[in-house]
Write a structure and sequence with these properties.
Elements lengths: L20 E6 L6 H5 L11 E3 L5 E7 L2 E10 L2 E7 L3 H6 L1 H4 L14 H9 L11 H10 L5 H15 L1 E2 L9 E2 L3 H5 L3 H6 L4 H12 L1 H5 L6 H8 L7 H11 L13 H10 L6 H8 L6 H11 L19
Antiparallel strand pairs: 1-5, 2-3, 3-4, 4-5, 6-7
Length: about 325
């Protein structure tokens, strides 16, 4: 990935953590803010993410400089942003990467009619890069082998209980996720109450204990970043891809090990709903270097195989 995400950007003074720090930058006129930042939202009630009727997207993040709240919207081809809290300057210095400035959609060449049509309908798609690994890793671990509804609920409960209110005038109910040390100190019964089993909670604790080393992955290329993240027991290819896609804006890091994606790709490109990971990667091979973008466009096309089996039944360990 070209460029480097600034590990310690130039600071801007924020008195008391509440005065806004403004920033404005030119951006592509066709930038779709919702499509670009949508993957960072973990469910409609995510306490760290909010989209408001005025077209703004609000994010509450834990940066290397501390908690911060970012509000951004696109007006007339320009991104207008404000940020609050100790992490305000860090968030604003990372704004171009967050909005896909380091992404190069012109490198993508559609080779299937379906993908070409979707690519033309969605010209505003950019691959976001947050530069924050743990922020995407923890909710991805929570999503391992459970329904997204369950995982979103667990994330919401844990962030609200152990995080802190988002700095500045963020919409009501927004929180910054806990810091790494706090994740390691959550009692076992609180994980249980949040409907998180011991395997997933243990993985999160192990990751939080080496958070500083994991955050270094944000400056690596895709394969090296995934390899770093997968050093933590309990983190495999599915979780590392879901993490690095967001933290690094990696256009080629396609998700493997997913219950639905191979069948969706196979159905869209070959009319075969029985496609496995190996066959999916073969179908996506014409897009090497851009396979994640190709998969996202397939998902955005809405072409999915007709459902034959019932949805995965949500589990609830809180009653055990």
């Amino acid at each position: 990935m070209a460029g480097r995400f600034p590990p310690r950007p130039t600071r801007t003074t924020v008195r008391g953590g509440h005065l806004p720090v403004p920033r404005s930058l030119d951006t592509a006129r066709d930038l779709d803010l919702g499509l670009t930042l949508g993957p960072l939202r973990r469910g409609p009630a995510d306490p760290t993410f909010r989209a408001t009727p005025d077209g703004s997207v609000w994010r509450a993040s834990r940066t290397p400089d501390g908690p911060g709240t970012l509000r951004v919207r696109v007006v007339g081809g320009r991104a207008e942003a404000e940020a609050w809290g100790p992490g305000a300057a860090w968030l604003l210095d990372g704004l171009p990467a967050l909005l896909g400035a380091e992404d190069d959609p012109t490198a993508f060449v559609p080779r299937h009619k379906l993908i070409l049509a979707t690519h033309r309908r969605r010209p505003g798609l950019r691959l976001t890069r947050t530069g924050l690994v743990l922020e995407s890793l923890i909710p991805s671990v929570l999503e391992q082998k459970v329904t997204t509804h369950e995982a979103y609920g667990s994330w919401r409960v844990l962030v609200r209980k152990y995080g802190e209110p988002a700095p500045g005038p963020a919409p009501e109910g927004m929180y910054v996720m806990p810091d790494a040390r706090t994740w390691t100190q959550i009692p076992s019964w609180e994980w249980h109450r949040a409907n998180v089993d011991g395997k997933r909670s243990a993985t999160i604790v192990r990751a939080a204990r080496v958070a500083a080393r994991l955050e270094e992955a944000a400056l690596m290329d895709g394969p090296a970043a995934r390899a770093r993240v997968e050093l933590v027991p309990g983190i495999g290819p599915w979780t590392s891809a879901e993490t690095i896609q967001r933290s690094n804006g990696a256009p080629d890091e396609v998700t493997t090990g997913d219950l639905h994606l191979p069948g969706i790709v196979g159905w869209a490109l070959a009319g075969d709903r029985t496609t496995d990971d190996e066959a999916m990667l073969t179908l996506l091979s014409p897009y090497t270097g851009q396979r994640h973008r190709a998969a996202r466009l397939i998902l955005l096309s809405g072409r999915v195989p007709p459902r034959r089996a019932p949805r995965m039944t949500p589990g609830d360990i809180t009653s055990i």
